[in-house]
Amino acid sequence: MSLHPLFALKQTSMKRTLAAAIAAATLVSAANASAQTLRFAHVDPDDWTTSKKGAAGQVFKNLVEAETDLTVELYPAGALGGETELIEGAQDGTISIAMVSGAYANFCPAVAVTDIPYTFPSAPVAWQVMDGEFGTALAEHCLQQTGLRTLAYGETGFRHFTNSVRPINSPEDMQGLKFRVQTIPLYLEMVSALGGEPQGIAWGEVPTALATGVVDGQENPISVIYGNNFYEFQDYLTLDRHVYGVDHLLINDEIFQSLSEEEQAAVKRAAVVAGTTGRAIQQFNSAEGITKLEEEGMEVTQPTAEQMEAFREAAQPPVQAYLTEELGDDAEWIERLSSAVEEASARF
């Protein structure tokens, strides 16, 4: 039996409408499924006992998944690229969350002020500053520039000098020594100001450079010095704490805004706990690492307050002058940080 033409037309129209509705529902479902999974990436190992970012990632995942229906996928050890690639991935949304350190200054230049040498006298002062008004304002500033929301701060820890020639108690002791540094202008400026000869060498080439004498020394946090067996090539460690490295726990803001209010609150809480956990792991490994490095035969020097002031007076003004020129209007963040550190230092 043939259908009335009008009925057939209506049936065809209904089928098309139904097909369109199914397709739309499928797209919405796929979008929701995508929104339910957060991709968290960093460059550190996954082992929470030795890795600050590894510990932070695992804590974040466990808390978010316990409190929400969100799923968190972890991509540690540079599985999705180096820090620059992770930040770019977070900006375009292929990565939801990235936990990064120094590379963020290439995207939000004001971040570089936290690397001004000898700015933070202790970790508790750094925590007060980054978790207080200064850190909140910096996060908002960077959100406007990058589209990335800072959920929390962690730390890579204080950096120290090692070398194979002699103990370093003052800037004069660095004269003539070649130090491997990151290929970042601020670090080159700092070592030059202290009297050393900075050598920008890629990370993968550092052990060979130390073993063959291409450089006399290097600078890194304690956990990196011990974890990479630098004691095999270096005899002297100076605990000068020249730079305090900040970790930034960043989320793509569009992804964050797509979450429900309850999910956003859970993500923010988990991030703060994650950052705090990373700090704790870093502090534990640093304290334990000093003892281990001494057991491996390194001579450890702790400069006096007067000696630390000599380091600060030599390195800080040239780096501040360099950053003032480089940052332009953002140079105001130098003074904002200095004021925040002075206020926080009064509490400790």
Structural features, described:
52% of the residues lie in helices and 18% in strands. By secondary structure, it is of the alpha/beta class. Strands 1, 2, 3, 4, 5, 6, 7, 8 and 9 form a 9-stranded mixed sheet that branches. α2 (52-67) runs antiparallel to α10, α4 (123-131) crosses α12 (332-345) and α6 (185-193) packs across α11. Keywords: Signal, Transport. Pfam families: DctP (PF03480).
Q: What would the average pLDDT be, to the nearest integer?
A: 91
Radius of gyration: 25 Å
Oligomeric state of the chains present here = single chain
Task: Please work out how many helical segments DSSP would assign.
Answer: 12
Strand content: 15-25%
Give the overall form.
Answer: globular
List SSEs in N-to-C order. Answer: HEHEHEHHEEHEHEHEHHEHH
Number of separate strands: 9
What profile does the largest beta sheet have? 9 strands, mixed
Distance between the termini: 92 Å
Summing up helix and strand content along with how strands pair, one would put the structural category as alpha/beta
Family: Belongs to the bacterial solute-binding protein 7 family.
Signal peptide: 1-35
Organism: Vreelandella olivaria
Pfam family, one: DctP
What are the defining features of this structure?
alpha/beta; 52% helix; 9-stranded mixed β-sheet; 348 residues; 9 strands; 12 helices; single chain
Outline:
Helix 6 (185-193) links the parallel strand 5 (178-181) and strand 6 (197-200). The longest helix has 35 residues, at 261-295. The chain is built from 12 helices and 9 strands.
